[in-house]
Write a structure and sequence with these properties.
This protein has about 375 residues and is of the alpha+beta class. Helix content is about 25%, strand content about 30%. The strands form 3 sheets. Strands 1, 2, 3, 4, 5, 6, 7, 8, 9, 10, 11 and 18 form a 12-stranded mixed beta sheet that branches. Strand 5 (about 155), helix 5 (about 175-180) and strand 6 (about 190-195) form a beta-alpha-beta unit. Helix 2 packs across helix 3 (about 95-105).
Amino acid sequence: MKNLIVLVLILTTITAVGQEHSHRSSRPLTFPDIPGYKSIKTDLHMHTVFSDGNVWPNIRVQEALRDNLDVISLTEHLEYQPHSKDIPHPDRNRSYKIALQEAKDHDLLIVHGSEITRDAPMGHNNAVFIEDANPILQDKAENAFAEAKKQNAFVFWNHPAWYAQNPDGNPILSEFQKERINKGELHGIEVINMTDYAEESLALALENNLTIMGTSDVHGLIDWDYTEKGNHRPITLVFTKEKSIPSVKEALFAGRTVAVYNDLMVGREEFLAPLLQASLKVESATYAGNSNVLEIELTNITSSDLLFQNESAYTFYDSSPVFEISAGETKMLHLKTLERKSAVDLKLRALGCFVAPKIQPVVTWTFNPSN
């Protein structure tokens, strides 16, 4: 009898442990804050079975927790409902409510959003920070945007280079979108959607003062669509005064963002440059023996591999001017300063980063070597 009780206890413990699920990932997304702002990791474009996705809303929350995200939005297509026969839901707010309930005990913010889904030239657009998705479902696209503005939504243009709507794979800013911008009804644009980075979308963002966005637009599982292929999900880093929904909304309207996908970072220089500067930690800077070769130890504290080219006044001793520092790794550089300096500028061009089409930022680290 005693042995039977012990066996039951063991089986009960194993079952309980097996039923637990972990919110930890092997490579969570990590980025440093920049001076004056917190770096908030967001994914504001994803789908569930409540539009054309393949998972229940609680899965999106669990995936976000595993990826160490701070903010997500489930942006279901308002008009496109391929699962409606199996999952009829007259309330277009339903997936948001389920996600909100799933996230209530976690440090994850859920932003209420929906996708206004039309053919070109209107295209697909996400409205986030909405109050009620139902009245945004309108016959005319103009009325949908007007209702989103009435709800003080932040609206951004999704996958503008999508070849299904633009066969050349280049975004076309239509008269409809120009009117939306002029009326204050369109505020951002995806420069990274899924695996696609569109330089032309970045150009449109800069020309029309639109906020730069990056999103996963995930329909299946993050693991299947990204992780198992060796990729991170694309995200938008939003630079906020605090971690709160009002602060994230304020920062998006102000355009304080950088879009990130793996080792690709895209943003305005005023935000991308300080992000890169904070991403490399100078562990030490010491001259080697009696030489004039300065040994600089740098650690990449982000979850992205970073590729640089030396733009300093000094050349390297024993390596190519182009080098990579993998995520979380430390690298030793040997800089030939020709004479011992009390202060040294290390100037690097970030090759995987863009502040405009084909324009890469150059970032400077200044430090005082120890002899």
